[in-house]
Design goal:
This protein is of the alpha+beta class. It folds into two domains: about 5-140, no CATH class; about 145-325, no CATH class. The chain is built from ten helices and 14 strands. The strands form four sheets. Strands 1-2-3-6-5 form a five-stranded mixed beta barrel. Strands 7-8-10-13 form a four-stranded mixed sheet. A two-stranded antiparallel ribbon has the order 9-14. Strand 1 and strand 2 (about 35-40) form a beta hairpin. Helix 2 (about 100-115) packs antiparallel against helix 7 (about 245-260) and helix 6 (about 230-240) runs antiparallel to helix 7 (about 245-260).
């Protein structure tokens, strides 16, 4: 795999030569269909994706640490001094933070290799806007449960058909269920206190009529040398490497839940053995729950339920139901 981080360092070490107005120094990415990794005059990392004669789609975007523009005519100086001109959609990280830059390079490497070719200007713009939203999420101060995200990713990547579950993963962390496909839903819960007492919204245990729902419950144990959230995240990205939309969804889900703590949270580690051996599945109808008929004027009901009072479902029986459950 091409060392894009090393290429950035090499580009920064090149002296600026004539003509002075060519301020972008770039390196063509292997198998990138004409895309470049580059730096601009301040040394910030950027990626340029060719759009040919496609019309410019969308206005420029600017965040605190990222900007993007579409259908821009650029002169790019190669390491050997050759200058090439073309029209590109550009995304630039206006920060030299090493961890953020490393993640930016990782995201864009995956995006460029997952893009369908031949490239279309409108499609490229949509994907770049998706990347911008990732970094908007990374700037959020709020961080939700690392434990919950670790468990969701663990259930997905350790399943028999992780690609199916990844496709069924919510596109928004505020959706009612973690996994949804057809008439089947799965809600993933985790605990580190050695009990199966989990927090639910009322609607999570009363799925719509005709929908079968199960809860995947696992008990986690912190372990210094355990499986990290970052490793699970990377496995999910690898599964999605040929589908740019799914790849962006993986990153969006993780960043949306972690916010500015994403780089620290990636190091959170739990025992893989403990998670695997404790994973149990429960029918939503068998779990202690409040009646769906709440008094008038009451809404947004949430409660704790002790799943240890319920009998788990044998995974073989779930698989016989077919659909998404067959992948467990």
């Amino acid at each position: 795999m091409e060392d894009l981080q090393g290429i950035l360092s090499a580009l920064r070490g090149l002296p600026m030569s004539e003509p002075k107005d060519v301020t972008i120094r770039g390196h063509a990415i292997q198998d990138g269909q004409g895309s470049y990794i580059a730096i601009e005059e301040s040394g910030y990392a950027m990626f340029l994706i060719p759009v040919g004669e496609s019309l410019s789609v969308g206005l420029p975007i600017k965040l605190a640490n990222l900007w993007a523009d579409f259908g821009v005519s650029c002169d790019i100086r190669h390491p050997d001094g050759e200058i090439r001109t073309g029209r590109y959609s550009i995304i630039c990280l206006s920060s030299r933070d090493s961890e953020l830059e490393s993640y930016f390079v990782t995201v864009m490497r995956g995006v460029i290799h997952a893009l369908p070719y031949p490239l279309d200007g409108e499609r490229i713009a949509a994907v770049i806007r998706g990347v911008v939203e990732l970094f908007r999420a990374a700037l959020k101060a709020e961080a939700r449960s690392v434990i919950g995200l670790w468990a969701e990713l663990f259930v997905i990547v350790s399943s028999r058909q992780p690609g199916m579950l990844l496709s069924a993963w919510h596109a928004d962390s505020h959706e009612l269920f973690d996994l949804s496909l057809g008439d089947q839903v799965i809600e993933v819960k985790a605990s580190v206190d050695r009990s199966r007492r989990h927090h639910f919204r009322l609607a999570q245990l009363w799925p719509p009529e005709g929908v079968r729902g199960i809860v995947a419950s696992c008990l986690l144990e912190r372990a210094t040398n355990g499986l990290t959230l970052g490793e699970l995240w990377d496995r999910a990205r690898e599964l999605a490497r040929f589908d740019v939309d799914l790849l962006l969804r993986v990153d969006a889900n993780c960043l949306d839940q972690l916010g500015t703590a994403w780089n620290v949270a990636r190091n959170a580690a739990f025992s893989e053995h403990r998670a695997r051996s404790s994973l149990r599945f429960f029918s939503m109808g068998d779990i202690p729950r409040i009646s769906e008929h709440v008094p008038m004027g009451i809404s947004d009901v949430e409660f704790m339920s002790n799943l240890e009072l319920s009998e788990p479902i044998e995974v073989e029986m779930l698989r016989e139901a077919g659909g998404m459950f067959s992948s467990l």
